[in-house]
Predict the structure of C3H1-type domain-containing protein.
Amino acid sequence: DDESATHAQQVVSVGTRGHPDSCAAPCKYLRRKSGCREGAGCPLCHACQWRRGGSSISTQSLWDQAEATQARELGKLGAATAAELGVPPHMSPFTSHGTVGHPYHCRPACKYLRRKGGCRIGAQCMNCHICEWRRGPPVAPPDVLSRMP
């Protein structure tokens, strides 16, 4: 069942043409369990993330921002890549959709990431791969700005 939901998310729709600059409004049915019924014929964008209230955010532009932030942070540390820091591939910070916007606008922490096999959903995971999962109520993210030099 998870496989069919993942497949539904990968379907490129007619409304996705021109993404991220001139695509259609985001499809709110794509991320549902049953997926978008229209599939490739959907007039809405399958690459943008739908949000309540009508404001859409281009997933690609958020990924670009996240990668730029990661590059700046790694540059401050004097390392070129996360691999050079010894970060295992399954724990790479920007491998999930839910990580976009971290630390303030990301999704809840992925409880499977730090298990032996890592998160089996990988890049399609809608939870954050940077926040640390804990039992009980979610903990507010640390103030990143206070730790910056």
Observations:
- Residues 59-77 form the longest helix (19 residues).
- The first strand starts at residue 48 and ends at 49.
- Residues 59-137 form one domain.
